[in-house]
Amino acid sequence: MTTPTRPTVLFLPGLLCDAELWAHQVEHLRDIVTPVVADLTRDDSIAAMARRAAEAAPGRFIVVALSMGGYVAFELFRTVADRIAGVALLDTTAAPDSAEKAAERRAGIASLAAGRFAGVTARLLPQLVHPAHVDGPVGAQVRAMAQRVGGEAYVRQQRAILGRPDSRPLLPLIRVPALVVVGAQDALTPPAEAETMQKGIDGAALHVLPDCGHLPPLERPEETTALLREWLEREVLPAF
């Protein structure tokens, strides 16, 4: 007798993040799904990232995406929507960069060309995590991930983000179970962005995590995993 294959969950990391971002979720959800963490460090366009990610998850799959990973998730809906059984969007946005934000990204690329890659600096870290996590193990994890990803991948990722399309018109076309999660203190993609996505996707649920910044899988790992498990078991897996 063969063992039933568990549905695949494709985890999509954010800028300067690697598989460690999703370590708690991978470990504690593998009893109900087959986790695959995409490598989003090798390409300089969102379209190329999406192609590589789709190749890593053959057949139908569920998408769980954070920040830049959300931009890749939207591209997957443009290209392989028929293969997606559900989507969880964490601390991301469907909107393109403002002119100010785009200028900041270009400045970051230019500064790297003029000197050594600094990773996640003391100035940047408070934008990524809640103040309670800046000086603790979460802050150390964020810095370590950035160093592993490195400067060359950082430039590729920033160029990809700069070139992404506006995904707000796509939202009404998403017709699978959707969960939107955001940290209450997320300074980069604040709750208003999450509300826009939740309102744009028919039937989407919204959950705001208190005392949390831009990285719930690291800042609130148990609660993030519990939210995903409950959503998967209630909304997605029964119809997979």
Detailed description of the structure:
- This protein has 240 residues and is α/β, with parallel strands linked by helices.
- It has a single domain (8-98, 158-239), classed as Alpha/Beta hydrolase fold, catalytic domain (Rossmann fold, 3-Layer(aba) Sandwich), CATH 3.40.50.1820.
- 44% of the residues lie in helices and 14% in strands.
- It is built from 9 helices and 6 strands, in the order βαβαβαβαααβαβαα.
- The protein has helices at 23-29, 46-55, 68-80, 99-113, 125-128, 137-162, 191-200, 216-219, 221-236, and strands at residues 8-12, 34-37, 61-66, 84-90, 178-183, 205-209.
- A 6-stranded parallel sheet has the order 2-1-3-4-5-6, with helices on both faces.
- α7 links the parallel β5 (178-183) and β6.
- The protein is globular, with a radius of gyration of 17 Å.
- 45% of the residues are buried.
